[in-house]
Structure formats: structure tokens, C-alpha cells
DNA sequence: CAGTTGGTGAGGAACTTGTT
DNA sequence: AACAAGTTCCTCACCAACTG
């Protein structure tokens, strides 16, 4: 006689791990079980749901549409249960944790540095790692826990992630002190005659958001230099006659640069902190996000 | 061909259920 | 309470399919 197994929490945890890893061996390692054990659990899940759930293909274990539909709610539920089981109270001073933050642009200066400093003083036993992050990878890495949170400019943010605005940023034009153009009338024509440096996070690009906005006005500018490391731009400007359109926060009081407003309207952007549903209720993660947010606001004042 | 991956069957520990 | 039988799910050993 065919009998349905009891669907217990361990089976759901296994299904969650299987759906994320798409590989029985890796799911087993994650669950601290052996591969045959998880294989057996998958068999029971298949019997329970009366669906193959994951089918073996050349690309790995691919979920069926039934399994696909289960993935998202399951991730949310498992995340909530993990939170439920965790101790509610924790002491930051004793907290031993490692945080992984991804950024899709150069936010280390405005977010990373104040956050790291704040974290060290509040929770000296924690560590934080910053990662370069492509927009396409963001959701997957947050969902799988390869990252705890991400920092990105709106509208790069995927819809189905939780997010919070950290601050609004606008662009300014930066150049060295005593640059000859400072003697000229600052118009769009003057702007377009200059030679620029540009920060390109992924590298190799000579055209960015500013060039798209210029194109809308039927104008263009010459970008002669593209660098991946935004932090180098102030030094670069000091030692050349290049100009750069940069986020206003990149120019600090003390780094001997002149600034000019953009001679055309530019919307700027919101800088967002993003995280996945599965860490939304986690008290340690909530606390970490609060520290990050607070560090950024402290910096702004 | 070796390495990796998932599956199967045997055997056993832990637990539940039924009977006395 | 005590015991036996049944159930569940683990590990171990091994097999088959696939990949580079």
C-alpha cells in the first residue's frame, strides 16, 4: 500500500537546500548529511508532492515548475524559522560574525569606510568583507547567502529584494584648483570643450550616465581616460587638466579640488541598501543594516 | 579513463505503536 | 511497565551515467 510520508521540517529544509544548490551532494554538505541521505529525502519529497521536483539534466538538477513555484515561499519560511530559533538577544560587543557586502559601484568611501569604523567600535569581534558585484548577480548572491547585503544605485535594484534608501546623490564637476577653465564663463559649451576622466566600475568604458544625458541634449564631450578605481580620481585631477563628473561625496573638503555645478540638469540617483527576504527578520542582520545606515547618516552630517 | 554525480540495497540505530 | 513488532531514516558500499 502506498503511503504518504509525514512532511517534516527536515524535509522542507532539504528541499530548500536542494533548490538553492541544484546539486544533491552540495545540498547534503550544507545540511551536514551524506549524499545518499539527501537523495533519500528527495525521493520522499518526490513521493509526497507527486512530482519529480528536480530532474537530472546536463546543466545539473533542474527544478520542475512545481518546485520552481515552491522555491520562493519556501525560502521565506525557512528564513523565518531560522530567525525564530535564533536567540533573540545578542550583545554586539560579543558578537562573532562575518558580514559580506557587495557594491555595484564605488561606495567604499561613502559607505564602506564609515561602516567598517563603526562596526569595529561596536562589535570588535566581527569582520566585514566588501565585494565587487555585478547587477545581474545581485539577486542570486543575496538569495544564496553569498552576500548579506548589497549597495547599489537606484534603478539598478531588482524589484523582489528588500531595500532602503541610504542617501540621495547628485553629480558635480571636479577639477584641480587654479585650473584655467575656472577663469572662463561656465556654460554647457565650455563644459563640452573640456577633456574628461571617467570612473567605470567594470572597467574600459568611456561613456556613462552623463554622456547619455548629454546625448539627449544633442551634445557630447571627450572622455580621454577611464579608471576602475574611483578613489584615484582626485589625485588624477590634481596632477592634470582633466575634469571629471563625480558623485558630490567623492570630493572631500581637504583634497584640494575645485568643483563646479553641472551646466545642465541632471537627476542624480538614490543610493540603496538591498537585502533578501531570507535575512529580513534576522536580528543580527537587522542590527548590521542599522549600523550601516547609521554610519552613512553620521558621515553626511 | 579518472573524477564527479546521483541512485540503490543492506544493515542498523532510534523511535513509535500495540499488546500484555 | 515491559516487551516485541513495525517504521523511519541514517550510513556504508557499490553501481551507472556523464564530463573533460
TrEMBL record:
Keywords, in A-Z order: DNA-binding, Transcription, Transcription regulation
PANTHER family found in the cross-reference section: HTH-TYPE TRANSCRIPTIONAL REGULATOR LEUO-RELATED (PTHR30118), TRANSCRIPTIONAL REGULATORY PROTEIN (PTHR30118:SF15)
GO molecular function, one term: DNA binding
Domain HTH lysR-type stretches: 7-64
Name by which UniProt lists this protein: Transcriptional regulator
Pfam families: HTH_1, LysR_substrate
Species this protein is from: Eikenella longinqua
Family of the protein in this entry: Belongs to the LysR transcriptional regulatory family.
PROSITE patterns reported for this sequence: HTH_LYSR
Amino acid at each position: 500500500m502506498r503511503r504518504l510520508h509525514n512532511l517534516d521540517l527536515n524535509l522542507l529544509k532539504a528541499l530548500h537546500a536542494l533548490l538553492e544548490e541544484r546539486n544533491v551532494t552540495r545540498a547534503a554538505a550544507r545540511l551536514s548529511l551524506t549524499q545518499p541521505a539527501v537523495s533519500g529525502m528527495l525521493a520522499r519529497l518526490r513521493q509526497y508532492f507527486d512530482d519529480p521536483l528536480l530532474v537530472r539534466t546536463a546543466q545539473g538538477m533542474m527544478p520542475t515548475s512545481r518546485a520552481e513555484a515552491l522555491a520562493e515561499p519556501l525560502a521565506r519560511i525557512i528564513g523565518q524559522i531560522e530567525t525564530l530559533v535564533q536567540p533573540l538577544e545578542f550583545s554586539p560587543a560579543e558578537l562573532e560574525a562575518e558580514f559580506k557586502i557587495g557594491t555595484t559601484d564605488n561606495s567604499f568611501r561613502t559607505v564602506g569606510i564609515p561602516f567598517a569604523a563603526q562596526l569595529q567600535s561596536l562589535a570588535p569581534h566581527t569582520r566585514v568583507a566588501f565585494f565587487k558585484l555585478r547587477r545581474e548577480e545581485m539577486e542570486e548572491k543575496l538569495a544564496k547567502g553569498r552576500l548579506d547585503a548589497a549597495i547599489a544605485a537606484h534603478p539598478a535594484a531588482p524589484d523582489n529584494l528588500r531595500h532602503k534608501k541610504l542617501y540621495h546623490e547628485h553629480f558635480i564637476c571636479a577639477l584641480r584648483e587654479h585650473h584655467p577653465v575656472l577663469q572662463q564663463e561656465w556654460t554647457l559649451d565650455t563644459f563640452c570643450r573640456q577633456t574628461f576622466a571617467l570612473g567605470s566600475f567594470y572597467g574600459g568604458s568611456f561613456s556613462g550616465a552623463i554622456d547619455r544625458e548629454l546625448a539627449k541634449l544633442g551634445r557630447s564631450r571627450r572622455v580621454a581616460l577611464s579608471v576602475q578605481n574611483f578613489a584615484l580620481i582626485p589625485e588624477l585631477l590634481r596632477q592634470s587638466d582633466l575634469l571629471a563628473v563625480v558623485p558630490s561625496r567623492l570630493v572631500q573638503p581637504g583634497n584640494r579640488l575645485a568643483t563646479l555645478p553641472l551646466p545642465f540638469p541632471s537627476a542624480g540617483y538614490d543610493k540603496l541598501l538591498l537585502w533578501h527576504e531570507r535575512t529580513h527578520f534576522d536580528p543580527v542582520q537587522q542590527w548590521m543594516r542599522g549600523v550601516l545606515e547609521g554610519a552613512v547618516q553620521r558621515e553626511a552630517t
